[in-house]
Amino acid sequence: MGRSLLVLFLLFAVIGQAKAFEAFEVEDIRVEGLRRIDVGTVLNYLPVSVNDVVDQQVAANAIRSLYQTGFFQDVGLERDNGVLVVEVVERPAIARIELRGNRAIGDDALLAALNEVGLAEGRVFNRFLLNDIERELRRQYLNQGQYGMQVESTVSPLPRNRVGIRIDVTEGDPARIREINFVGNEAVADSTLQGLFEQGPRRWYQFFSRRDQYSREQLAADLERLTSYYHDRGYINFNVSSTQVSISPDRRDIYITVNVSEGEQYDIGDVTLAGNLIVDEAELRELLATRPGDQYSRQGVTQSSNRIRERLGQEGYAFANVNPVPEVDEDTNTVSLVYYVDPGKRVYVRRINIAGNYRTQDEVIRRELRQMEGGWLSSDRLRRSQTRLQRLGFFSNVNIETPQVPGTDDQVDVNVSVQEQLSGSLQAGVGYGDYQGFLVNFSVEQDNVLGTGDRLSFAINNSRVNRIYSLAYTERYHTIDGVSRSFNASLRETQASRADLSDYGVRAGNLGVGYNIPINEDDSINVQFSYENLRLDVSDTTAARILDFTDEYGERFDNYKATLGWTRDTRNRAFFPNFGGRQQISAAVAVPGSDLEFYKLSYNHKRWFPITDTWTLSVEGRLAYGDGYGNTDELPFFENYYAGGISTVRGYRGNSLGPRDEVDDRPLGGNARILGSAELIFPVPFTEAQSLRLFGFLDGGNVFDTTDDGIDLDELRYSTGVGLIWLSPLGALSMSLGWPLNEEPEDRTQRFQFSLGTFF
Known about the structure:
By secondary structure, this protein is α+β, with helices and mostly antiparallel strands. The protein has six domains: about 1-90, membrane protein fhac (Ubiquitin-like (UB roll)), CATH 3.10.20.310; about 95-170, Ubiquitin-like (UB roll) (Roll), CATH 3.10.20; about 175-260, Ubiquitin-like (UB roll) (Roll), CATH 3.10.20.310; about 265-340, Roll (Ubiquitin-like (UB roll)); about 350-420, membrane protein fhac (Ubiquitin-like (UB roll), Roll), CATH 3.10.20; about 505-760, membrane protein fhac: a member of the omp85/tpsb transporter family (Porin, Beta Barrel), CATH 2.40.160.
């Protein structure tokens, strides 16, 4: 209605202005009334030029053209002898737009919607757009289920032909979904289908959920999820017939009715591979997620196509096309599948280009690449190359692109773009651990020395229990095959009594060299050799068992240690992985000729299983055992294992589990340890922070002295609880709230435990 009145108004105005003219030849054109708009802009839109003859019809067309620009609220034409005078009144410009009362929809979203209908700061204001503006705002709110909203616009004149617009929104209470009803479903229960919808009636325990707030976009996504559910279970003819959304008279309750047609359920008949397979057919069939006799699944068909395409990509056919064609037999309710494979041409890599590495040498990047120049392009090798570069820790972002070489259909370039991050640090810090107490540390570390990829570090750590000085250098590529070599030196002083252990002190100096030998992309072997000079400090209050040890073996030792380890790492990322695992087997021995002869064996295995995109289950097991040999009858007490605390069995005080001294009841540790843990890891609700995770846990474990009592699995302690991990910019914080499940009277429990490090 508003636009019709506008057209009529313009029509009458144009006719009125046009009647004032008698035909004449234009000798010049003069524009009056301009403030912001340039004269050239007006002349550009004016369909009249010098030497043209202007009559009533030409004048009407000229006025209409200038009105249609939207720049002017009034246009007039006059004649001054041979001069055509164009008199205009500009529309005001929008100086500001102020939104009030919009809590459900943010300013940015509303301003973007207003911009689509022509209302934005700096643009020409058209009063006739206000109705469209209010209509658009109502549409935005209706999509969010805000049926009771009201909107009022106020236009205020400002100096220099400008206006300010204020839009007041009264949102009211949003309508809530009370029921979702399904009509036509016979094979699947209503409760199952309702569980597929992310929106619906709020459950009794979802106090802060917005699940019952209606959204048109979310309903469309839920219906797509419903369709996929049926298609993945053999109902290939399923469709949503119609959807009705009704609202109660008081605009508070919403009722959704979904009418469905399920159709018949189909199984898979014959499965055929056709075309140029390239790879052996039997191998491709192993990749298929659709087998004859199985229930038809659209997801399975898509997954099968992607697997075949991925396998061909490993052979260099980067642009292969796999087209599954279903053949439906209505009589037998089966679907036969034919996968037509078109590999295209094998694609080769012409050149590898590296960009963004201003500090890191090209060689450091190229030696991590598994895709070679001149070879055929492999999607698997590209992914592995990107993963290896990301694990270096030198780059905050790694991007690999494969643009086609112009003029060819079988060559690409590989463009590796990296974004470097600080790989060196100078840190000083303070922190606190639940059994280490207050700690101070200082470290200088360069993880990419002079761009070579080597690592140099020096650190001092001082806590209530330990004082550690260390210096280490790692040559990542000691050989061209990726064997790394490291050197380290350290000095450690420990006061065990401050960790609630027996009263003794240890001062140990260590010099070592190690080699890490990669076996394949996931496995590596670690070999280390070290010399240790160790001195014990004991007193009259030291446990008798420790005094017996020092009486027999002394208090000063020179030990030569050799360590052999194997590591398999298949994690998808270093922090908060959700897939893969990490296994470690290690054997350390003080070789013959040392003052003490002993060995220590350990096995650690942790795996991560994705439950959803954001929920992960991790399961971990740790076994360790040590003993003496030769001239040493037992594992030295200062090499004992301990359990209890936030890193082993939560809910029990740090280092408190296992054998204790009969006199002062302080923990002695043991030569064998069994630990296990399961964690359900999930993001913190109502936040998208990637550095924050919550988890529920179940821990179990203990330490044992096999020289006296052996291993008694009935002595394992268990606990459960919840915790939080935050990888903050100032350090890592881990805390847990644990409840022991089978503590004994002599056990020392501790519900709340945490470890905090803060760097500055």
